[in-house]
Amino acid sequence: MTDAGAMSGAGSPAAHLVHGMGTDMAAPSWPAITAEEAATVVAQFPAAGRLARVHWHSPRPFSAAALIETGQGMFLLKRHHRRLRTPDQLGAEHRFIAHLRPHIAVPEVMTLAASDSGALARGDWTYELHRKAAGVDLYRDRPSWTPFLSLAQARAAGVALARLHRASQGFDAPARPPQPLVASFTILPDPDPIAATERYIAARPALAAFLARRPWRREFTSLFSVLGDGLQPRLAAQPALWTHNDWHPSNLLWEEEDVRTVIDFGLADRTCALHDLAIALERSGVAWLALGQGADATIGQPEAACALLAGYAATTAFGAEDGATLVRLLPLVHLEFALSEVAYFAGVLGDMSAAALAWDGYLIGHAAWFLSEPGQAFLRRIADAEHGA
Length: 389
What we know:
globular, 2 domains, Aminoglycoside 3'-phosphotransferase, Chain: A, domain 2, single chain, homoserine kinase activity, Phosphorylase Kinase, domain 1, Kinase-like_dom_sf, Aminoglycoside_PTrfase, alpha+beta
Protein backbone atom coordinates (compact mmCIF):
# COMPACT_ATOMS: atom_id res chain seq x y z
CA MET A 1 0.00 0.00 0.00
CA THR A 2 1.33 3.48 -0.86
CA ASP A 3 0.33 7.05 -0.20
CA ALA A 4 1.25 10.50 -1.51
CA GLY A 5 4.51 10.34 0.39
CA ALA A 6 5.69 7.48 -1.79
CA MET A 7 6.37 9.98 -4.55
CA SER A 8 8.32 12.37 -2.32
CA GLY A 9 11.61 13.28 -3.99
CA ALA A 10 10.68 11.61 -7.28
CA GLY A 11 9.10 14.57 -9.05
CA SER A 12 5.78 14.44 -10.79
CA PRO A 13 5.43 11.71 -13.43
CA ALA A 14 3.38 14.16 -15.48
CA ALA A 15 6.33 16.58 -15.58
CA HIS A 16 8.95 13.91 -16.31
CA LEU A 17 11.28 14.63 -19.26
CA VAL A 18 13.76 12.38 -21.04
CA HIS A 19 16.80 12.80 -23.25
CA GLY A 20 15.78 13.70 -26.79
CA MET A 21 17.53 13.13 -30.10
CA GLY A 22 19.76 16.14 -29.47
CA THR A 23 20.88 17.97 -26.36
CA ASP A 24 17.43 19.17 -25.26
CA MET A 25 15.14 17.29 -22.90
CA ALA A 26 11.87 16.05 -24.41
CA ALA A 27 8.50 14.68 -23.43
CA PRO A 28 8.73 10.90 -22.95
CA SER A 29 7.37 8.42 -25.45
CA TRP A 30 6.55 6.13 -22.53
CA PRO A 31 4.81 7.45 -19.38
CA ALA A 32 6.76 7.52 -16.14
CA ILE A 33 6.16 4.71 -13.65
CA THR A 34 3.76 5.80 -10.91
CA ALA A 35 3.94 4.78 -7.26
CA GLU A 36 0.68 2.81 -7.57
CA GLU A 37 1.97 0.96 -10.62
CA ALA A 38 5.29 0.22 -8.94
CA ALA A 39 3.56 -1.14 -5.82
CA THR A 40 1.40 -3.49 -7.89
CA VAL A 41 4.35 -4.80 -9.90
CA VAL A 42 6.80 -5.14 -7.02
CA ALA A 43 4.25 -7.25 -5.13
CA GLN A 44 4.81 -9.95 -7.78
CA PHE A 45 8.50 -10.24 -6.82
CA PRO A 46 8.47 -11.75 -3.32
CA ALA A 47 12.12 -11.11 -2.45
CA ALA A 48 11.69 -7.37 -3.07
CA GLY A 49 9.31 -6.59 -0.22
CA ARG A 50 6.67 -3.84 -0.26
CA LEU A 51 7.14 -0.51 -1.98
CA ALA A 52 8.08 2.36 0.34
CA ARG A 53 9.06 5.11 -2.07
CA VAL A 54 9.81 6.02 -5.70
CA HIS A 55 13.06 7.99 -5.65
CA TRP A 56 13.96 8.85 -9.24
CA HIS A 57 12.76 8.45 -12.83
CA SER A 58 15.35 7.64 -15.47
CA PRO A 59 15.72 10.12 -18.37
CA ARG A 60 16.62 7.33 -20.82
CA PRO A 61 14.12 7.49 -23.70
CA PHE A 62 13.46 3.93 -24.95
CA SER A 63 11.75 2.56 -21.85
CA ALA A 64 10.54 3.77 -18.46
CA ALA A 65 12.63 3.09 -15.37
CA ALA A 66 12.52 4.19 -11.76
CA LEU A 67 14.74 3.79 -8.73
CA ILE A 68 12.53 2.55 -5.93
CA GLU A 69 12.89 1.71 -2.25
CA THR A 70 11.20 -1.21 -0.51
CA GLY A 71 11.52 -2.87 2.83
CA GLN A 72 14.33 -4.96 1.32
CA GLY A 73 16.43 -2.11 -0.05
CA MET A 74 16.81 -0.22 -3.32
CA PHE A 75 15.78 -1.58 -6.73
CA LEU A 76 15.56 -0.46 -10.34
CA LEU A 77 12.14 -1.14 -11.86
CA LYS A 78 12.10 -1.04 -15.65
CA ARG A 79 9.07 -1.14 -17.93
CA HIS A 80 9.05 -1.88 -21.68
CA HIS A 81 6.20 -1.81 -24.14
CA ARG A 82 5.47 -5.38 -25.26
CA ARG A 83 6.30 -4.39 -28.85
CA LEU A 84 9.85 -3.75 -27.67
CA ARG A 85 10.40 -6.60 -25.20
CA THR A 86 8.34 -9.64 -24.32
CA PRO A 87 9.20 -11.80 -21.29
CA ASP A 88 10.89 -14.31 -23.62
CA GLN A 89 13.00 -11.55 -25.17
CA LEU A 90 14.02 -10.24 -21.77
CA GLY A 91 14.80 -13.82 -20.79
CA ALA A 92 17.70 -13.88 -23.26
CA GLU A 93 19.24 -10.84 -21.56
CA HIS A 94 18.66 -12.25 -18.09
CA ARG A 95 20.30 -15.58 -18.95
CA PHE A 96 23.35 -13.71 -20.23
CA ILE A 97 23.50 -11.67 -17.02
CA ALA A 98 23.22 -14.88 -14.98
CA HIS A 99 26.14 -16.37 -16.91
CA LEU A 100 28.27 -13.30 -16.20
CA ARG A 101 27.40 -12.92 -12.50
CA PRO A 102 29.97 -15.40 -11.09
CA HIS A 103 32.75 -13.55 -12.93
CA ILE A 104 31.99 -9.80 -13.02
CA ALA A 105 29.69 -7.42 -11.16
CA VAL A 106 26.32 -7.16 -12.91
CA PRO A 107 22.80 -6.44 -11.58
CA GLU A 108 20.87 -9.09 -9.67
CA VAL A 109 17.66 -9.87 -11.56
CA MET A 110 14.72 -10.50 -9.23
CA THR A 111 12.34 -13.35 -10.04
CA LEU A 112 8.57 -13.76 -9.86
CA ALA A 113 6.70 -15.67 -7.20
CA ALA A 114 5.13 -18.10 -9.65
CA SER A 115 8.27 -18.98 -11.65
CA ASP A 116 11.99 -18.36 -11.96
CA SER A 117 11.32 -15.75 -14.66
CA GLY A 118 12.63 -12.25 -14.18
CA ALA A 119 10.03 -10.65 -16.48
CA LEU A 120 6.39 -9.86 -15.78
CA ALA A 121 3.82 -9.33 -18.54
CA ARG A 122 0.95 -7.04 -17.57
CA GLY A 123 -1.32 -5.59 -20.24
CA ASP A 124 0.74 -3.77 -22.86
CA TRP A 125 3.82 -3.77 -20.64
CA THR A 126 6.72 -6.03 -19.71
CA TYR A 127 8.49 -5.35 -16.41
CA GLU A 128 11.83 -6.35 -14.93
CA LEU A 129 13.22 -5.63 -11.47
CA HIS A 130 16.92 -5.46 -10.58
CA ARG A 131 18.41 -4.99 -7.15
CA LYS A 132 20.34 -1.71 -7.09
CA ALA A 133 23.89 -2.58 -8.07
CA ALA A 134 27.05 -1.46 -6.32
CA GLY A 135 28.78 1.69 -7.53
CA VAL A 136 28.05 5.34 -8.22
CA ASP A 137 25.94 6.24 -11.25
CA LEU A 138 28.13 9.19 -12.23
CA TYR A 139 26.53 9.65 -15.64
CA ARG A 140 22.89 8.97 -14.83
CA ASP A 141 21.68 12.46 -15.78
CA ARG A 142 23.95 12.81 -18.80
CA PRO A 143 22.76 11.76 -22.27
CA SER A 144 23.81 8.33 -23.47
CA TRP A 145 27.04 8.35 -25.47
CA THR A 146 28.44 11.19 -23.38
CA PRO A 147 32.26 10.98 -23.55
CA PHE A 148 34.25 9.95 -20.49
CA LEU A 149 34.96 12.54 -17.82
CA SER A 150 38.61 11.45 -17.61
CA LEU A 151 41.20 9.36 -19.43
CA ALA A 152 41.49 7.19 -16.31
CA GLN A 153 37.82 6.28 -16.58
CA ALA A 154 38.23 5.53 -20.28
CA ARG A 155 41.11 3.16 -19.56
CA ALA A 156 39.16 1.50 -16.73
CA ALA A 157 36.25 0.97 -19.11
CA GLY A 158 38.59 -0.81 -21.52
CA VAL A 159 39.85 -3.09 -18.77
CA ALA A 160 36.27 -3.87 -17.71
CA LEU A 161 35.21 -4.62 -21.29
CA ALA A 162 38.02 -7.14 -21.69
CA ARG A 163 36.92 -8.80 -18.45
CA LEU A 164 33.35 -9.00 -19.69
CA HIS A 165 34.52 -10.67 -22.90
CA ARG A 166 36.41 -13.29 -20.90
CA ALA A 167 33.38 -13.84 -18.68
CA SER A 168 31.15 -14.25 -21.73
CA GLN A 169 33.08 -17.27 -22.96
CA GLY A 170 30.95 -20.40 -22.89
CA PHE A 171 27.60 -18.63 -23.22
CA ASP A 172 26.47 -20.25 -26.44
CA ALA A 173 22.90 -19.01 -26.88
CA PRO A 174 21.94 -18.29 -30.49
CA ALA A 175 21.64 -14.76 -31.82
CA ARG A 176 18.43 -12.98 -30.93
CA PRO A 177 15.64 -12.99 -33.55
CA PRO A 178 14.63 -9.69 -35.20
CA GLN A 179 13.30 -7.24 -32.62
CA PRO A 180 13.57 -3.50 -32.05
CA LEU A 181 16.60 -1.87 -30.50
CA VAL A 182 19.13 -4.68 -30.57
CA ALA A 183 22.67 -4.26 -31.95
CA SER A 184 22.76 -7.35 -34.14
CA PHE A 185 25.64 -8.51 -36.36
CA THR A 186 24.33 -9.84 -39.67
CA ILE A 187 25.23 -7.30 -42.37
CA LEU A 188 28.93 -6.50 -42.17
CA PRO A 189 30.18 -10.13 -41.88
CA ASP A 190 28.12 -11.17 -44.92
CA PRO A 191 29.91 -11.61 -48.28
CA ASP A 192 27.07 -9.62 -49.89
CA PRO A 193 26.24 -6.81 -47.43
CA ILE A 194 23.59 -5.31 -49.71
CA ALA A 195 21.72 -8.63 -49.87
CA ALA A 196 22.12 -8.96 -46.09
CA THR A 197 20.70 -5.45 -45.65
CA GLU A 198 17.76 -6.36 -47.88
CA ARG A 199 17.03 -9.36 -45.65
CA TYR A 200 17.35 -7.19 -42.54
CA ILE A 201 14.90 -4.65 -43.95
CA ALA A 202 12.44 -7.28 -45.22
CA ALA A 203 12.18 -8.72 -41.69
CA ARG A 204 11.05 -5.30 -40.42
CA PRO A 205 8.02 -4.08 -42.41
CA ALA A 206 7.94 -0.58 -40.93
CA LEU A 207 11.59 -0.08 -41.85
CA ALA A 208 10.88 -1.36 -45.37
CA ALA A 209 8.00 1.10 -45.73
CA PHE A 210 10.13 3.98 -44.48
CA LEU A 211 12.95 3.19 -46.91
CA ALA A 212 10.72 2.46 -49.92
CA ARG A 213 11.21 5.97 -51.33
CA ARG A 214 14.78 6.47 -50.22
CA PRO A 215 17.86 5.60 -52.28
CA TRP A 216 19.21 3.43 -49.50
CA ARG A 217 20.91 0.89 -51.84
CA ARG A 218 22.91 3.64 -53.51
CA GLU A 219 23.88 5.13 -50.12
CA PHE A 220 24.85 1.77 -48.65
CA THR A 221 26.74 0.71 -51.77
CA SER A 222 28.75 3.92 -51.52
CA LEU A 223 29.47 3.40 -47.82
CA PHE A 224 30.54 -0.21 -48.28
CA SER A 225 32.68 0.71 -51.27
CA VAL A 226 34.50 3.54 -49.52
CA LEU A 227 34.63 2.25 -45.94
CA GLY A 228 34.11 -1.50 -46.12
CA ASP A 229 36.88 -2.62 -48.46
CA GLY A 230 38.41 -5.83 -47.10
CA LEU A 231 36.34 -5.74 -43.91
CA GLN A 232 34.03 -8.70 -44.51
CA PRO A 233 36.59 -11.55 -44.49
CA ARG A 234 38.20 -10.08 -41.41
CA LEU A 235 34.87 -10.08 -39.56
CA ALA A 236 33.83 -13.50 -40.84
CA ALA A 237 36.96 -14.93 -39.21
CA GLN A 238 36.15 -13.51 -35.77
CA PRO A 239 34.95 -15.95 -33.09
CA ALA A 240 31.30 -15.45 -32.21
CA LEU A 241 30.67 -14.11 -28.72
CA TRP A 242 27.74 -12.72 -26.75
CA THR A 243 28.57 -9.08 -26.09
CA HIS A 244 27.15 -5.99 -24.37
CA ASN A 245 26.83 -3.80 -27.50
CA ASP A 246 26.06 -0.56 -25.66
CA TRP A 247 29.33 0.12 -23.86
CA HIS A 248 29.47 3.77 -22.83
CA PRO A 249 30.04 5.62 -19.53
CA SER A 250 26.38 5.80 -18.47
CA ASN A 251 26.05 2.01 -18.65
CA LEU A 252 28.79 1.62 -16.05
CA LEU A 253 28.66 2.23 -12.30
CA TRP A 254 31.81 3.67 -10.79
CA GLU A 255 33.99 3.52 -7.71
CA GLU A 256 36.22 6.57 -8.03
CA GLU A 257 38.03 6.01 -11.38
CA ASP A 258 37.30 2.28 -11.65
CA VAL A 259 34.32 0.38 -13.05
CA ARG A 260 32.36 -1.25 -10.24
CA THR A 261 29.35 -2.74 -12.07
CA VAL A 262 28.23 -3.18 -15.69
CA ILE A 263 24.54 -2.43 -16.29
CA ASP A 264 21.93 -2.29 -19.07
CA PHE A 265 22.16 -5.38 -21.26
CA GLY A 266 19.20 -4.43 -23.44
CA LEU A 267 21.26 -4.44 -26.66
CA ALA A 268 23.24 -7.59 -25.87
CA ASP A 269 23.44 -10.15 -28.66
CA ARG A 270 25.74 -12.67 -30.31
CA THR A 271 28.33 -10.62 -32.22
CA CYS A 272 32.11 -10.72 -31.68
CA ALA A 273 34.58 -9.08 -29.32
CA LEU A 274 35.92 -6.61 -31.91
CA HIS A 275 32.38 -5.51 -32.76
CA ASP A 276 31.76 -4.75 -29.08
CA LEU A 277 35.08 -2.92 -28.75
CA ALA A 278 34.37 -0.86 -31.87
CA ILE A 279 30.95 0.13 -30.48
CA ALA A 280 32.61 1.19 -27.22
CA LEU A 281 35.09 3.40 -29.08
CA GLU A 282 32.47 4.83 -31.44
CA ARG A 283 29.97 5.69 -28.72
CA SER A 284 32.35 7.19 -26.19
CA GLY A 285 35.18 8.53 -28.35
CA VAL A 286 33.14 11.03 -30.37
CA ALA A 287 30.81 13.71 -28.97
CA TRP A 288 28.06 12.87 -31.45
CA LEU A 289 25.45 15.19 -29.97
CA ALA A 290 27.59 18.09 -31.19
CA LEU A 291 27.67 16.80 -34.78
CA GLY A 292 26.36 19.42 -37.18
CA GLN A 293 26.50 22.16 -34.55
CA GLY A 294 29.45 23.99 -36.10
CA ALA A 295 32.30 22.16 -34.37
CA ASP A 296 32.55 18.88 -36.29
CA ALA A 297 36.33 19.21 -36.43
CA THR A 298 36.60 18.92 -32.65
CA ILE A 299 33.99 16.30 -31.70
CA GLY A 300 36.47 13.44 -31.90
CA GLN A 301 38.20 12.54 -28.65
CA PRO A 302 40.98 10.23 -29.85
CA GLU A 303 42.93 10.32 -26.59
CA ALA A 304 39.94 8.94 -24.69
CA ALA A 305 39.45 6.28 -27.38
CA CYS A 306 43.12 5.35 -27.17
CA ALA A 307 42.93 5.15 -23.38
CA LEU A 308 39.99 2.75 -23.59
CA LEU A 309 41.82 0.70 -26.20
CA ALA A 310 44.98 0.63 -24.08
CA GLY A 311 43.02 -0.66 -21.10
CA TYR A 312 41.44 -3.35 -23.24
CA ALA A 313 44.73 -4.41 -24.88
CA ALA A 314 46.52 -4.55 -21.51
CA THR A 315 43.98 -7.07 -20.24
CA THR A 316 43.53 -9.44 -23.17
CA ALA A 317 45.34 -10.72 -26.25
CA PHE A 318 45.08 -8.05 -28.94
CA GLY A 319 47.33 -8.19 -32.00
CA ALA A 320 48.16 -6.02 -34.99
CA GLU A 321 45.56 -7.73 -37.18
CA ASP A 322 42.89 -7.08 -34.56
CA GLY A 323 43.89 -3.42 -34.56
CA ALA A 324 43.68 -3.19 -38.34
CA THR A 325 40.24 -4.80 -38.34
CA LEU A 326 39.07 -2.48 -35.58
CA VAL A 327 40.06 0.66 -37.51
CA ARG A 328 38.19 -0.57 -40.60
CA LEU A 329 35.14 -1.51 -38.56
CA LEU A 330 34.77 1.71 -36.56
CA PRO A 331 33.08 3.86 -39.28
CA LEU A 332 30.42 1.21 -39.99
CA VAL A 333 29.87 -0.52 -36.65
CA HIS A 334 26.79 1.58 -35.89
CA LEU A 335 24.83 0.53 -39.01
CA GLU A 336 22.64 -2.25 -37.64
CA PHE A 337 21.65 -0.48 -34.47
CA ALA A 338 20.95 2.66 -36.48
CA LEU A 339 18.64 0.64 -38.72
CA SER A 340 17.00 -0.75 -35.59
CA GLU A 341 16.43 2.79 -34.31
CA VAL A 342 14.84 3.81 -37.61
CA ALA A 343 12.55 0.77 -37.38
CA TYR A 344 11.67 1.70 -33.78
CA PHE A 345 10.72 5.28 -34.60
CA ALA A 346 8.89 4.39 -37.81
CA GLY A 347 7.17 1.23 -36.61
CA VAL A 348 6.70 1.38 -32.86
CA LEU A 349 6.24 5.13 -32.35
CA GLY A 350 5.08 6.13 -35.84
CA ASP A 351 7.39 9.17 -35.58
CA MET A 352 8.64 9.68 -39.13
CA SER A 353 10.54 12.85 -38.25
CA ALA A 354 12.61 11.00 -35.64
CA ALA A 355 13.05 8.10 -38.05
CA ALA A 356 14.42 10.49 -40.69
CA LEU A 357 16.78 12.02 -38.14
CA ALA A 358 18.00 8.57 -37.12
CA TRP A 359 18.65 7.73 -40.79
CA ASP A 360 20.18 10.99 -41.98
CA GLY A 361 21.87 12.22 -38.83
CA TYR A 362 22.84 8.97 -37.15
CA LEU A 363 23.26 6.23 -39.73
CA ILE A 364 24.49 8.31 -42.68
CA GLY A 365 25.86 11.24 -40.67
CA HIS A 366 28.14 9.20 -38.42
CA ALA A 367 29.63 7.30 -41.33
CA ALA A 368 30.10 10.55 -43.28
CA TRP A 369 32.00 12.11 -40.37
CA PHE A 370 34.53 9.28 -40.51
CA LEU A 371 35.12 10.20 -44.17
CA SER A 372 35.85 13.81 -43.23
CA GLU A 373 39.36 14.99 -42.39
CA PRO A 374 38.63 15.08 -38.62
CA GLY A 375 37.17 11.57 -38.84
CA GLN A 376 40.14 10.30 -40.83
CA ALA A 377 42.50 11.91 -38.30
CA PHE A 378 40.61 10.13 -35.51
CA LEU A 379 41.08 6.78 -37.26
CA ARG A 380 44.77 7.48 -37.92
CA ARG A 381 45.28 8.21 -34.23
CA ILE A 382 43.69 4.86 -33.32
CA ALA A 383 45.87 3.11 -35.89
CA ASP A 384 49.00 4.88 -34.60
CA ALA A 385 48.19 3.84 -31.05
CA GLU A 386 48.06 0.25 -32.23
CA HIS A 387 51.58 0.62 -33.63
CA GLY A 388 52.92 2.28 -30.51
CA ALA A 389 53.19 5.75 -32.04
